[in-house]
UniProtKB/TrEMBL annotation:
Catalytic activity annotation: (sulfur carrier)-H + L-cysteine = (sulfur carrier)-SH + L-alanine
E.C. no: 2.8.1.7
Segments crossing the lipid bilayer: none
UniProt-recorded name of the protein: cysteine desulfurase
Cofactors, names only: pyridoxal 5'-phosphate
Residue ranges of domain Aminotransferase class V in the record: 66-441
GO BP terms in the entry: cysteine metabolic process
Length: 453
């Protein structure tokens, strides 16, 4: 923890010991606290500049913003904002793609497809052809359900999910199951509150056609051993889809070694803009999948009697796409690649362990998911409840101190019910967060608990 904790802070309000504890009062001015956060280094191997993220310099309720809601959406660096502004702004090249031969259209098309290639490199896809742009990860899962699923799944076939899935990886399969008479099975949690792989092995049968699981849980923080699960699925001829919304932004994801057949992810959780995500699929599978939405540019030839369709990925990208957003996603891939995803993962492990350790020492706090010691892998997020205090009350009080966290069911109602709760609080740091901010959050949480006691 030395890289995160053993550092001087340019503020008379703080004195840090080697253990990372403050030796004097927790009270500090907003100006001093902001200066301390700006100067606090991240993990030794990771040096993104907080000034890359201008939104972090603001105050909320006269306190410096401590943004710990990154599992919901990340902030955007200047590099991404500039890339999108260059498309729309003075001297820019705002134009439709794949439709014109004039200079602006050619430039826009090149930037749009260059961004696809950047996404492909970021996850080590075999070809940019394997990257399908979607509005978000939700649409990507729906695309698979309504193309591959509709064409390949039949009455009595089985899909294996888990109780820990985001609603976006449950509802599309429920809709498909209702239409096609499919059987949905759900993996529950082990004693350490990870997905129970022993139970998973019993749920996968010769009738299983698809296993669709979260790679990193946005509620529990547990990391799925994807290669092992892929072996289980492929042993019976099933395909594996992974929801990688919480893994692609936070750790190296290599689809060549992951073992999945499809993965989905969202731009806005990985420093990119909202309104765009992507599906990666093995090209051999994409080539066999029928189109889902019809319209311009997904066609090869249109006649009054019938139409033929373009090759992937164009087959699945009907209509004018989110061009500026795709360019922004490409810039986000460049930004994270420049930091180094191994370094990003190391920073998150370190800061996540520190966050967990600090929370664990607070009376009446119940943290969900595996402990860092017990886990096969744990993300840098902590979902918790405080005995006797509603999660919304906690997050509301934290907001008055400038600390932003998430409260509610986190789009994971089934796992909340499985754990006997209806809602929770989640703190989720990212690349620009520091140990000082974790301490500010824990201090504010401790004061909140005292307020309600």
């Amino acid at each position: 923890m030395a890289a995160l904790l053993d550092h001087p802070v340019a503020s008379t309000s703080y004195t840090w010991t080697a253990s990372g504890r403050r030796a004097n009062s927790r009270r500090q001015s907003a100006v001093a606290r902001a200066a301390a956060v700006e100067e606090a280094p991240l993990a030794a191997a990771l040096r993104p500049t907080r000034t890359d993220f201008p939104i972090l310099r603001q105050s909320v309720n006269e306190r410096p913003l401590v943004y710990l809601d990154n599992a919901a959406t990340s902030q955007k660096p200047l590099q991404v904002l500039r890339a999108m502004d260059e498309y729309y702004g003075e001297g820019g090249y705002n134009s439709n793609v794949h439709r014109g031969v004039h200079a602006l259209s050619a430039r826009a098309t090149t930037a749009y497809e260059d961004a696809r290639a950047k996404v492909a490199r970021f996850i080590n896809a075999s070809s940019p052809q394997e990257i399908v742009y979607t509005r978000n990860a939700t649409e990507a899962i729906n695309l698979v359900a309504n193309t591959w699923g509709a064409a390949n799944l039949h009455q009595g076939d089985e899909i294996v999910l888990s109780v820990a899935e985001h609603h976006s990886n449950i509802v599309p399969w429920q809709l498909l199951a209702q239409r096609q008479g499919l059987v949905l099975k759900f993996v529950e949690l082990s004693g350490t509150e990870e997905l129970d792989l022993a139970q998973l092995a019993t749920l996968i049968t010769p009738r299983t056609r698809l296993v669709s699981l979260v790679h990193v849980s946005n509620m529990l923080g547990c990391v799925l051993p994807a290669q092992r699960v892929a072996e289980m699925a492929h042993a019976v001829g099933a395909k594996l889809l992974l929801d990688c919304c919480q893994s692609v932004p936070n750790m190296p994801v290599d689809v060549q070694s992951l073992g999945a057949d499809f993965i989905v992810a969202s731009s806005h959780k990985m420093c990119g803009p909202t309104g765009i995500g992507f599906l990666w699929g093995r090209l051999s599978l994409l080539e066999e999948m029928p189109p889902w939405m019809g319209g311009g540019e997904m066609i090869q030839d249109v006649r009054l009697e019938a139409s033929t369709y373009a090759e992937p990925p164009s087959r699945f990208e009907a209509g004018t796409p989110a061009i500026a957003e795709a360019i922004g996603l490409g810039a986000a891939c460049d930004y994270l690649t420049g930091l180094g995803m191994q370094q990003v993962a190391a920073h998150e492990r370190e800061l996540g362990a520190y966050l967990y350790a600090k929370l664990r020492r607070i009376d009446r706090v119940r943290i969900y998911g595996p402990s860092p010691e017990a886990a096969q892998g744990r993300a840098a997020l902590a979902t918790f409840n405080v005995e006797g205090i509603h999660p919304t009350d906690i997050s509301t009080i934290l907001d008055t101190t400038g600390v932003a966290v998430r409260s509610g069911h986190l789009c994971t109602q089934p796992v909340h019910r499985h754990l006997g709760i209806s809602s929770s609080v989640r703190a989720s740091p990212y690349i620009y967060n520091t140990a000082l901010e974790v301490d500010a959050f824990v201090d504010a949480l401790t004061d909140s608990i005292k307020f309600f006691t």
